[in-house]
Each structure stands twice: as C-alpha cells, then as structure tokens.
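User: Response regulatory domain-containing protein, Rhodopseudomonas palustris:
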Amino acid sequence: MNSIAPAAAAPKMLIADDDPWLVRVLAERCARMGFEVETASNGMQALLKARRYKPDILVIDVNMPEVDGLSVCAQLLDPDRAPLHVVVATGSRDPGTFERCEGFGAIYARKGADFWTEMDAALVEIYPDLKNVAEQTGTRPATEVVRANPRVLLVDDDAEVKLLLASRLKKLGVEVLYAADATEAYRLACREEPTVIVSDYYMPNGDAQYLLGKLRTSPVTENIPVIVLSGRDLGDAIQNELRREFSGHRGAAQIMKKSMDTSELFGALQQYCGFEPDPRIEL
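Assistant: Predicted structure for Response regulatory domain-containing protein:
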C-alpha cells in the first residue's frame, strides 16, 4: 500500500458500520486520537459521504444494509480516485472475505476480544506519527469488548413468539435479548445497545410507536434499526406514523405481518446483522 504522508490538518476518517454502539464508541476514541471523524450507518450512506467528505481513511464493516462494505471499497478504491486507506472491521471468519480485503490492500481488524488491539495497530501502521498518541489514549476502552456476534432485542409480550424467534436466531450465532413491553425494551436498549430491535406493535405499557419515540430521544439508541411486527392489519395511517421521522431520526426500518414463516423477517435481519444463512436451519 502506498504511504500517504500525514497532512498538517487532522486526517479525515469515515467510519461505516450498521452497529450504532460500535460507531459511537469508535468515533469517540478516534476523535480523541486526533482524527476528524464522520460516520455512516449503511453502505449507500458511506458511498455518498465518502464522495462529499473525501476521507483519508475508511473504517468499514463488511455486512451492511443496501450496499456491503466490500462493494463500497471496490468503488472507492478506483485507481482514478485519490488514495484511500481502508481498515475493514469484521466479525466474519470467512477466508474469502480476508482474501478480498488483502486484494484491496486493506488492513482488517476482527471484531471480538482483540479488536481494540488490532485497531490500534492498524492505525499506527498507516499513521506512524500517531504511535505515541495511540499508546497514551488509543482506541481501546478500558472495559468495552467489541461483540463478534450481532445482538438482537426481541420485544413481545407473547412468550411463544420470543421462543420461536430466539431459538432460530441463536442457531445463526446471534445474541438475543428479551423485553416484554416498551418500557423494559427502552431501558434494555440504552444499557445493551443492540444491533437491531424487533418489536411487536401492540404491547402493554406502550406500543411500538411509543417505543420508537423513546428510542429516538436518546443519543445511545437514536440510530438503532427497529423492525415492527403485528398480527393484525395496522392500516396505512398507523404504518405512515411508524415510518415517519422521530426527533429527526428514522422511524421503523420495516413493518411486517407476524407469521410462522419467518423467512422475510430473517432476510431483513441478515441485512443488519450480517449472519451467514444456514440451509440446515428452517426459517
């Protein structure tokens, strides 16, 4: 990889990941190291922001909604474009993914227990002048471990629905959290910062619309995607209310009918969680 001499100004970094928790934590720590940081929550947004923001370094997840991270890299690393350093942050263990990263000349940091160590090393490799800063501040938090597996919060007062979805998600390597109503879900989301929330519409102590309103008022939960399920026909008026912006942030990512056939739901979850589909598991 051709080296890029650090400019007098702070290096521009674009962080693209659909995990709101990781984006927030990594952005805070990289800003403390001296980077000028911009963020994106999906591949299409990353492409648009990269073209406008013109970053010096891109930190990007592989599995994201709309456009995956490797496709973003393929477009941004065109030889006719300005040089761009790339660090791929991924929980994937697929050898093909690593081969493609190396083909792009990208460095990768595996999500998991060693993520912060690998991220520090990647940034110092690209910007050696940051070594002393990294040793003093670094990207590594004292206690926060980057999750190798996605985390889904299921919100439903029907225990059978939660059991059905949870058993299938766990087989795909997804960590599952539970809440029986909107109030409990909001508290849990603030504490655990799930990758995505799947919520029933009708619940005691507040419906899905109430939950969205609460989530979008907190910086910790304002960008977490929410998929709303309902066993009844919600009608256009309620669906439009769920999809509208709440406090300037996106409403429901998707609205679906509850069904024993969960293939549509799991197809949507795969966009946000990036788990590999397993033909042996009935969805």
